[in-house]
Amino acid sequence: YTASEAERDATVAAGWSYEGIGWTAPSEGAPVYRVYNPNAGDHHYTTSEAERDYLVSVGWNDEGIGWYSDADDQTVVWRQYNPNATSGSHNYTTSTEERDFLVSVGWQHEGIGWYGLAAS
What we know:
Layout: H1 5-13, E1 30-37, E2 42-46, H2 49-57, E3 61-69, E4 75-81, E5 90-93, H3 96-104, E6 108-116
């Protein structure tokens, strides 16, 4: 997940599939922190400073603020965790159907990750 068009384009050029826009983030609000695990090649996103700080303390790289959470709580972005994955262990989605399907096949529902703007 990225707010950067350049990063999106470079990732697609490297062979990743582009799935479209997952949600729209506001230009201000609570920060959503982005950290990177250089050993697994995995990114993680959280609004929790404590979670960010813990991950950095165990070797993840702090990449700063990825985007912001909507202060008006317009669109829920759900967070799920796959306890069996070694990389790509988290999914973030605005779709309750996607969330519920992943939970039905063994992912753990971790609640609300943050909020995006309302779809227009």
